[in-house]
Design goal:
The complex is a heterotrimer of chains A (223), B (190) and C (190).
Chain A: H1 2-10, H2 25-30, H3 35-58, H4 68-90, H5 92-98, H6 109-119, H7 124-154, E1 156-157, E2 160-161, H8 176-200, H9 214-220
Antiparallel strand pairs in A: 1-2
Chain B: H1 2-49, E1 62-66, E2 69-78, E3 81-92, E4 97-105, E5 110-118, H2 132-135, H3 161-181, H4 185-188
Antiparallel strand pairs in B: 1-2, 2-3, 3-4, 4-5
Chain C: H1 2-13, H2 24-29, H3 34-63, H4 72-94, H5 96-102, H6 106-109, H7 113-124, H8 129-157, H9 169-184
Helix pairs in contact in C: 1-8, 3-4, 3-7, 3-8, 4-5, 4-7, 7-8
Classes of the chains: A mainly alpha (223), B alpha+beta (190), C mainly alpha (190).
């Protein structure tokens, strides 16, 4: 139980994607025009990530090593198609909003990265906790970025107006550049806080999170 | 050899299971997806074609077998009385097909209005065929419809001849279908 | 003329990295040196054009006739994964010099969302075969342009003192934001 909690909670702060572990940038930047879209994307990722982690961990003994990446891709792609169908059936407006980024969950490096780095080596219950934690962390991050952009870009959150009267929205925040600026600022603030906290505790200041070789690096680079 | 065999077996089992699971899921969700698409893609356009309707045209829609195949027809009622019908046709535009929803007045055999359901035209030029300046020319016109350049009454959007022609062609096609549909209308929606 | 407009649109106005957010990871990860970004850009271009051509044919002649459109994602990604493996083996045997320069990037490309993204994008926009392939070529040129520009800026930054919290990813993201702002200016062109 304790180890499950540990695997779950690391995704929420210590290794929260995409702030600490730079994974899955494309959806983070593309769909966070509003808090609602960010949340929707996050939930879709939780669904795929948890199930793919569990399934891959369950079959990890019988998959031949040479074809494991293809097997992982097949399993996660199946789950992504399932999500596509379910979203079309039950949340069609959200599906239209997220557009091409729903099928692209399959190449979201979080899915393959966690499959390769964690689920393929650990028992089912730990893989479940890991997937849930990472997925929730990703959802929180997406909702946060979405809220920041929506708040500054339109003056509201989740479609409700919360800014004072006469607030002039920064239209740029809901356009493409705003995504980069918002994410960059949040990552910088997190680095700043980590360094500050480490220095206060008298520890060595840790390295900044970085994107080693890109998404693809984590999924296939270790071959 | 054993290794290769096990690779093939594992891969085909995974693909087989996923294929079955997905086709099952597809079959279960198919009707729901269809009604969602109608509600969110065609729905707003249908309402714009004839805003005065008091019924829900999507719920009362019927599939009718016409010469071009099964066509979905949406009826408009005002206080229970059938006023018009709408159906969707496609015309070839500049960036792909233009979907046009065309409404007809069943009493007077004239157009009630048109609306664009989907298109991939050039923003700012071809997309103007969805603007009221263009679509507003259609209500009240008879079934013989053509662009001014072809001797008709419709002004093309300037700079977007292909998009305008595609839209008008779709309307003409809808008019042909309507003439074919006309005799059945009173039985379909009494 | 159409193709010229498409070129401007795909490279500058709707740049795949800076306006459509595909291929972010190599953009921020593989843009430390100009040489690496040219290699990565070439490899992506090579694979993406092939992948679009193959997936377009599969969609048209396998998925559409059998009404299997919903399996698009899974079929495309498996095709791309297989294609990458095949290209790697092929180049190793037939063209060792090209393999030497592109080889190390090839395994990284399977999960590059540029490739799958473009394959799906041309299907969603219902482009025909030659347009699809050309569009993919232009879009990946835009990808390479963004990568090379970013690498140029990064090479300069290696010589500066940057605040600690901004080092690495945050600075890259903020630079990307400013670059995307500049590219927005191209929107007025078409």
């Amino acid at each position: 139980m304790a180890s499950m909690w540990q695997e779950f909670s690391k995704g929420l702060w210590k290794e929260i994607p995409p702030f600490r572990v730079v994974l899955g940038l494309c959806p983070t930047l593309a769909v966070t025009k509003s808090a609602e879209n960010g949340l929707g994307m996050g939930v879709a990722v939780i669904f795929v990530l948890v199930l793919s982690n569990v399934l891959i961990s369950a079959v990890r003994g019988i998959i031949p090593k040479k074809v494991r990446i293809v097997c992982f891709i097949a399993i996660s792609a199946t789950l992504v198609v399932a999500v596509e169908l379910l979203m079309q059936a039950f949340t069609y407006p959200l599906y239209q909003q997220l557009g091409i980024f729903v099928p692209l969950i399959v190449v979201n490096c979080i899915i393959l990265g966690r499959a390769e780095a964690f689920a393929a080596k650990n028992p089912v219950h730990l893989a479940l906790a890991d997937g849930l934690g990472m997925g929730m962390g990703f959802t929180i991050a997406l909702t946060l970025i979405g809220s920041i952009r929506e708040l500054l870009g339109t003056g509201g959150i989740f479609g409700h107006n919360v800014m004072w009267n006469g607030f002039e929205p920064f239209g740029i925040m809901v356009e493409a550049p705003g995504a980069f600026l918002a994410l960059g600022t949040v990552v910088a603030l997190m680095n700043f806080y980590t360094a500050w906290a480490a220095r206060r505790a008298g520890l060595e200041v840790p390295e900044n999170a970085s994107c080693q070789g890109g998404c693809s690096g984590c999924a296939t680079g270790q071959r | 050899m054993r290794e290769i065999a096990s690779m093939i077996v594992v891969l085909s089992v995974i693909c087989g299971i996923s294929g079955f699971a997905l086709s099952y899921l597809k079959q279960t969700t198919q009707p729901i997806i269809e009604s969602q698409v109608l509600r969110y893609v065609q729905g707003p356009t249908i309402r714009n074609v004839f805003p005065a309707a008091t019924n829900n045209p999507i719920e009362e829609r019927k599939e009718v077998a016409l010469s071009t195949g099964l066509t979905t027809v949406f009826p408009f009622r005002v206080e229970g009385k059938l006023v018009g019908v709408a159906l969707e046709t496609q015309g070839k535009g500049y960036g792909g097909n233009i979907g046009v929803m065309v409404g007809f007045d069943v009493q007077r055999d004239v157009l009630l209005g048109i609306g664009i359901t989907q298109m991939k035209e050039t923003p700012g030029l071809g997309t103007n065929v969805a603007q009221p300046r263009f679509t507003g020319q259609f209500p009240g016109k008879g079934l013989e419809i053509a662009l001014k350049s072809a001797g008709g009454t419709i002004d093309a959007v300037s700079g977007a001849t292909i998009s305008s022609t595609g839209t008008v062609l779709a309307v003409q096609q809808a008019a042909t279908l309507y003439k074919e549909l006309k005799p059945q209308i009173s039985q379909l929606w009494p | 003329m159409d193709y010229f407009l498409m070129f401007i649109s795909a490279v500058f106005v709707n740049n795949i990295v800076l306006a459509q957010f595909l291929g972010q990871c190599p953009y921020l990860g593989c843009s430390k040196e100009k040489g690496v970004s040219i290699g990565m850009g070439m490899a992506v271009m090579f694979v993406a054009v092939m992948a679009t051509a193959v997936t377009w044919l599969v969609q048209k002649y396998v998925l559409d006739p059998f009404a299997l459109g919903y399996l698009q994602t899974i079929v495309f990604i498996l095709i791309i994964a297989g294609l990458v493996q095949f290209v790697e083996m092929f180049l190793k045997k037939i063209m060792p010099p090209l393999y030497k320069s592109l080889g190390i990037y090839l395994p990284l490309i399977t999960t590059n969302c540029c490739v799958l993204g473009l394959a799906i994008l041309v299907q969603r926009d219902a482009m025909d075969f030659s347009t699809s392939v050309l569009y993919t070529l232009f879009a990946t040129l835009g990808f390479m342009l963004a990568l090379i520009l970013m690498a140029g800026i990064r090479e300069r930054f290696a010589l500066c003192r940057v605040p600690r919290a901004l080092q690495g990813t945050p600075l890259g993201l903020i630079m990307a934001g400013l670059m995307s702002l500049c590219f927005m200016a191209f929107k007025g062109m078409i």
